[in-house]
């Protein structure tokens, strides 16, 4: 008597012939079918990636620029960066960006030189005006001498920044600082005298010259910081 496997067909009677026929109806996919499926999937994936890249490129080309101030190659952005270290950034920017000496240059060294040139030009006009004033005011005479001294110091600093060595830059900073002190002393003397139409006119012009000189001092003193902000290095 043949032995019987009690677990075979438990709960279901299966005809061995039928079972063999059932397995034959589910053939495994052949290698060619698998290759076609893989190629189709790869093509679909490539298409999706291409569409994604195309969308990103379109977005980047149509996106508006962040801000013109981020363009470190423009004269305006360089002057703005330099003037941001000063106490009077608005007058600094207006005086330098329109100066003939700048001529649209975006070189920080040019901005440095022009900041001193603007101070010299403004102080030269003030000196001429003070000399033309026939006044016996002692404070005005003292102020005239101080302005001439400040102008001489600025002339020295103008030559120093043209050289632009480390030692010369320190000298320029000292001379411009002394010029600011001279102008401040002049203004203090005029304030003590009181208010007259003539003195008030001088004070207005003196304050403008002092602002420009103060701006030049700040730019000279912070020149390396300005270069760092613009991601530039001194030559």
From TrEMBL:
Instruction: Keywords in alphabetical order, please.
Output: Disulfide bond, Glycoprotein, Membrane, Signal, Transmembrane, Transmembrane helix
Q: Which leading EC class covers this enzyme?
A: hydrolase
SUPFAM superfamilies of this UniProt entry? Plant invertase/pectin methylesterase inhibitor
Which residue spans traverse the membrane?
Answer: 36-57
Instruction: Tell me the domain of life.
Output: Eukaryota
Listed EC numbers: 3.1.1.11
Q: Which GO terms describe its molecular function?
A: enzyme inhibitor activity; pectinesterase activity
Q: Which residue range or ranges hold the Pectinesterase inhibitor domain? A: 74-219
Q: Which PANTHER family match?
A: PECTINESTERASE 1-LIKE, PECTINESTERASE INHIBITOR-LIKE
Q: Which family does it belong to?
A: Belongs to the PMEI family.
This chain belongs to which protein, by name? Answer: pectinesterase
